[in-house]
Amino acid sequence: MLRGDDSLRNALRSLVGEIVKWWHRIGARKYPWRETSDPWHVLVAEVLLIQTNAAKVVKVYEEFVKKYSTPAHLAEAEVSEVEELLRPLGLHKQRAKLLKRAAEVLCREYGCRVPETYEELRRLPGVGDYVASTVLLFAYGKTRPLVDVNVARVLCRLALGEDPPRRYSEDEVVARLAASIEWSREVALALIDFAATICTAKSPSCGICPARGGCSYARRRGTSK
Description:
This protein is mainly α. Helix content is 59%, strand content 0%. Helix 2 packs antiparallel against helix 8. The longest helix has 21 residues, at 6-26.
């Protein structure tokens, strides 16, 4: 993989394909932000999900997009009322200020619409690489690698038999593994759910893993059969 080995690249794609089949078979996890392609709602969800459990975000997210359904609604709001709505998630003052500032920029520079380019999205307050990539993939259908620490763990375990380095987002190996995959909405969601339920950080369920037959990590643990 690290030397451009096509056989290893194809093997990783095949394993990801098995994970996607598993995802369709067992049923995807259901969250309201997965039922929309509205770019503003996708952006809001991803900001709220930063360092926060998804189950905890559901109620707040639904209330937020109902009250501030467009950037214009949030741009006109008092930051104190936004903070109060976000209080259950923690970091509520920081999130409220970032989202309100982002809404103000969107209305001032983009006609209250979320832009469709990576460079423009990255200029919005609170929008990093992962949030920008998520908006492009989930809202606009633009192919982007979607790699957080959990997906990086899955890719490194499958291909290399080990966990990713701590600074995974700056690691060339992780980037090359991600680049070898044909990304789509279903691939991204399947890897996210797989990382959360099967290939977990501390106690991976290798015995029921749909990719264990070809997984380097399972082979090292003796659980590939």
